[in-house]
Specification:
The protein is mostly beta strands and 124 residues long. It is built from no helices and eleven strands. Strands 2, 4, 5, 6, 9, 10 and 11 form a seven-stranded mixed β-sheet that branches. It has a four-stranded antiparallel β-sheet with strand order 1-3-8-7, with no helix packed on it. It is globular, with a radius of gyration of 13 Å.
Length: 124
């Protein structure tokens, strides 16, 4: 059984930084692409950043480009989202997504495996 576990959420003031971690276990068919989605209150779950093994494909939403950095450990299903210069509008539940290709971690209806989510709250 595949499990996806996020950690690292919390509360921070605007301008601060947080780093989220994601560990995927139980998948026995190699390495997966990893992505991060954010869901604000009353909003749709939207892709924030995504990457595939080896860093050959990387995606950032325009609103987080140059502030967030996604990474994945080499040949591992473990990834990180380093968030800096946080803004109030970055607030939401952040979900780690895992999939068998970049398209599978950019659209919520295509994601293969979801984590349970971790809350990020940025106060202005």
């Amino acid at each position: 059984q595949v499990q996806v576990v996020e950690s690292g959420g919390g509360s921070v003031q605007a301008g601060g930084s947080l780093e989220l971690s994601c560990v995927v276990s139980g998948y026995t068919h190699g390495t997966l692409c990893l992505g991060w989605f954010r869901q604000g209150a009353g909003e749709e779950r939207e892709a924030v950043a995504a990457t595939c093994p080896g860093g050959r494909e990387i995606y950032y939403d325009d609103n987080v480009k140059f502030r967030f950095t996604i990474s994945q450990e080499n040949a591992q299903n473990t990834g990180y989202l380093k968030m800096s210069r946080l803004k109030a509008e970055d607030t939401g539940v952040y979900y780690c997504a895992a999939g068998t290709g970049i398209s599978k971690v950019l659209a919520s209806h295509l994601v293969n495996f979801w984590g349970q989510g971790t809350q990020v709250t940025v106060s202005s």
